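Revision sheet: structure tokens.
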Amino acid sequence: MAKDQNKKKELLEEEENTSKKASEEKDAENAEEIDASEISEEETDAKDFDEKDSEDKASEETDEEDSSETKKKNITPEATFDSPNGKSVHRPIVYLELALAIIALVFIIVAIVNYRKSHTEPAAPGVSGTDAATVTTGVPTSALPNGAQAPEIDNSKVAEMKPATPDIAAMNKLTEAECEANVADGTMIRMDCADGTYVYVRNFKDQEYLASHLVVTEADIDKMIKEEFLDVEKVPLPCDHEVAELGDIANIDYVGKKDGVAFDGGTANGYDLTLGSGQFIPGFEDGVAGMKIGETKDIPLTFPENYQSAELAGQEVIFTVTLNALKTEGYATELTDDIANHLSGGMCPTVQELKDYLKTNWLVVQKMEKFLMDDLYVDGVSTASVDEYYDLQVQQIMDMGETYGMSMEDLLSAQGYTMEDALNQIMSEAASAVRADVLYRAVLENELQPVTDDDITTLATQNGYGESVDEFIEQNGRDELILYLQRDKATAYLQELADKASMLSSDSGEEVDEVSDVSESDNAADSETAEEAPEKE
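Predicted:
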């Protein structure tokens, strides 16, 4: 359930940085930025506060220089769409099974952040205690002083504990004869790929048949809200008292002054601080405890001697704090606009907007994934494809751990996972991802235009490599880019089918236009040529 929650937050809140500058940062640093924005609202607020601190700016510049060694750009199989309030966010891919292939990396990111939080000193008000360079060894290995030796990391267990590779054919629920019978009655279709692989899949091209499997009821939405949000997600709730206590969430305004002058990064309004969390420097939260709602108070403090900003380290300051409101954290029994706004990270400010979002972008997606994958029959795939996918995921995790001087086992242990469980999960996800990839290719080869050099150029431009497409291809690999674009085109096409079928299932009295070929705009030249070609008999 926790993994679903992380995934949920990714879909609701994440906006990926695609500039060229970001492409030169380390995978681990990218991961931490993503995690900070997805997992903790307090850390998000803290990051905004932290960006005001001049010392942190200098640290960011140093990190950019260090990260020049690693330029590999991560490409994630996601498409963007507009939310109900017009904000651009990431849309889940149709195949949640394929999305599972990156969950292994997600929980490793969580492990890094949690590990760092437990091994660092609380920082200034509004700044989480996480220093950008402290995990186990104190600094990333790339930032070690000249001549310093990185700690020796033992990942020998990884190869020794590799699970048995699943047989893709054994994952098919139906026999080929049963699939052929379903093709005859129109409920399944067969699609062949140029490399000899082929699939049988439920007939997604029959809009009425598809629509009958994508019906979402109000009860479905209410059940999801209860099981996936209200029962598992703590939210700020009104307090029954007016005097702040440790454990309360205090909404405060504050101004920090040194020698009577406000210092940079020491001011915030409407900040939610959990008293007793240790997020602020020692003495601050204790000073807020005991205040009444509406009260303003001066809290004299001294910054720690080892504080990250040399200008403030060991200095005496005064924070003028106003307590605006008090909340407590707990489980809500019903959904309100305020809770909907909180759960969606501000993307859905009302209950109805959240329900509409969940229906279109969660429940319909889940039903589409079930429709496509439940009876999917895949043949002609070797176990080598699964091993390749597995090895890639494991290597990425090991690389991430080595960046911070940690073995894969230590990284997993920090989040409460055993090596055996994690490797079994990754292998299972690799097999599911390979099956989904065959379906992607089949859809692309049978229903759409193939990936072209123009598609790769467009992707390079979107990622800040418009003037250096060859460098973009070299860094990511042509085969990997083609695979990504195949997924992207296929999922866009299938998502459009799902959207239109969902409209049909919601209002069966309305006609739904046939889905447009998503490759049409991408391959205008090919379309013009096709119009001039003689019609097939």
